[in-house]
Amino acid sequence: MVESVLMKLRGAVWSGLALIALAWLGFIDVGRGVTPDEIKWGPAPPKLPPGAQFAVIQGDPSVPGALYTIRAKLPDGYSVPPHWHPMDEHVTVIEGTIELGMGTTFDPTKLRALATGSFARLPKLEPHFNRYKGPTIVQLHGIGPYDIHYVNPADDPTHGRPLHCWIRGPDRRPGSSQPRLESPCPADL
Length: 189
Fold this sequence. Notes:
Layout: H1 2-24, E1 42-43, E2 53-59, E3 67-74, E4 79-84, E5 89-102, E6 112-115, E7 119-122, E8 128-143, E9 149-150
Antiparallel strand pairs: 1-2, 2-3, 3-8, 4-8, 4-9, 5-6, 5-7, 5-8
């Protein structure tokens, strides 16, 4: 009986240590959560058309293999020309409406309205475009690095500079909420 209790105790200790290690490494956000008034909005990366605001909610979108969650706040009529991503893009409409179309040319007849509460998974390398109806907030989540590639290079305001050069998540060291200061991106791009 004593051995049985000790084995259960040992299992509980190892499970607890594993959870602490995962939380310390940034894989689990332990019990904190984020309320809408705690979100710190800033301008979207210059890789996107002007007018949008971004907030990194969790993770670091620039790190390969890392989970991330981003919120985007978009004004009425905002639109992103045909583009694709090197990873699957998961989109949840928090507020408002996104009109989403698939293809390499912007065709308003192909737009499908996704209202508040809707979800879309856009497969990697699949060209798509969008337009926003009314003020809209969407949540994007996935596995980094997050990037956007325009079908027509002339639509890219940064002329091809990787998006991870513009988006940086919080420093994932324990006790730190400061943005990462280092960047693997060349300064001359």
